[in-house]
Amino acid sequence: MILGRVQVWLLALGLLAGLPGAGRAETLTALAHPVPGQAVVQDRGAGVELSLGLSQGVPWRLFTLADPWRLVLDFSQVDWTGFDAEAFDRSEHVLAVRTGGLGPGWSRMVLELDGPMKVAQAALSGAEPAGPVLGLSLEPQDAEAFRAAAGVPESARFTLPEDARPPATPIRRQDGSRPVMVVLDPGHGGVDPGAEHGGEVEAKLMLTFALELQEVLLRAGFEVLLTRHDDSFVPLEARVSIARAAGADVFLSLHADAVTEGVAHGATVYTLAENASDSASRKLAERHDREDLLAGVDLTDQDDVIAGVLMDLARLETQPRSERLADALVAGLRRSIGALHKRPRLEADFSVLKAPDIPSVLLELGFLSSARDRKRLTDPAWRARAAAGIRDALLAWAKADAAEARLVRK
Ligand SMILES: [Zn+2]
């Protein structure tokens, strides 16, 4: 069986839908609602027209996906509670309409189409007094052109489309032609404070460091997104899903744990343990609800084994990239702070490292149980040196990784 890269990516897109819950309480403040009686999708000749009244204007974007033909609308943020997809869909060309939450701050509507269609027109009007209405029209298109334009936009940032065309570039491996998207994951948060020692709390300290590191990386030309911006609880799989939704090139989880026995100090860089990979794939495939997967890609007629194989294929390419990233971080931190653990490069079965398609590492910056490390971690000057070491590591890694990407494609 030969599986193309496109299929692997499509699978990865499917995983995007595995988000638990519709977000945290503090993201629910600026929700828009569909306006009852002002939402319909219907046929207009060979084409389709969509009209969706919203209680308030929200950032949104759209893109298309092939196999099956889909139009995806993302909103920041629409509460679909009470939305009647069946009453909404009066179109023969629209085979199914699905709506749902897509992690903190995101909502999605997916229209499954009976053939390739292009977006001829798309606009969110601010018409008063009825309120804003999203109007879309679709026209038939040939399959080749549809496929060429299909794919998830590179940036997770919501922007109003300049014109009606969906973004043409699918997420792909970074090759130096665009900014590298780094997702920083400050460990723990909210009900889970992580390690606590000598008056210091891991969750709080790692958020501080992530915000500082974000500044350093932005100045170096990276795009940066954090999995949390405050002291809130984010489930582990949601952290990975946020990274995927952002089109992350790198996922970097930040921790400073404690040991209860013995003495340990210094930074450690973890990658996913080799023997964890297979079961990770399978567990992911088993856990992710079929209906959820449908939002990104139709896996209903694929069994868990095939889903696992697809993920393993993606991981085959990703794992060595993660390993090289970890090596680069060890080298960068050794130069900038020197204070590394006696075994600075370890492997473990961490859930947040299980994205099959995103190079992922977990950095234990130090041990809160060590007085020496606590002193370092709470010293802004030391943290600045650590951030510079990580920046240098990411720059070196991204350059080598891009060169390899260009070689692989040739
Ligand atoms: Zn931790």
CATH topology of the largest domain: Aminopeptidase
Quantity of strands, as a count: 16
User: Strand fraction band?
Assistant: 25-35%
Mean pLDDT: 78
Structure overview:
The chain has 410 residues and is an alpha/beta fold. The chain is 33% helix and 25% strand. A hairpin with a 7-residue loop joins strand 7 and strand 8. Helix 4 (202-219) packs across helix 10 and helix 6 packs across helix 8 (304-336). It is elongated, with a radius of gyration of 22 Å. Mean pLDDT is 78; it is low at 1-29, 155-171 and 287-303. It binds zinc ion. Zinc ion binds next to loops.
List keywords for this structure.
alpha/beta, binds zinc ion, Aminopeptidase, disordered N terminus, 410 residues
Please describe the topology of this protein.
Blueprint: H1 5-15, E1 34-44, E2 47-54, E3 60-65, E4 70-75, H2 85-88, E5 94-101, E6 107-113, E7 117-125, E8 133-140, H3 143-149, E9 181-186, E10 196-197, E11 200-201, H4 202-219, E12 223-226, H5 236-245, E13 250-255, E14 267-272, H6 277-287, H7 290-294, H8 304-336, E15 340-348, E16 360-364, H9 371-377, H10 380-409
Parallel strand pairs: 9-12, 9-13, 13-16, 14-15
Antiparallel strand pairs: 1-2, 2-8, 3-4, 4-6, 5-6, 7-8, 10-11, 14-16
The structure holds zinc ion.
Zinc ion is lined by residues 187-188, 194, 202, 255, 257.
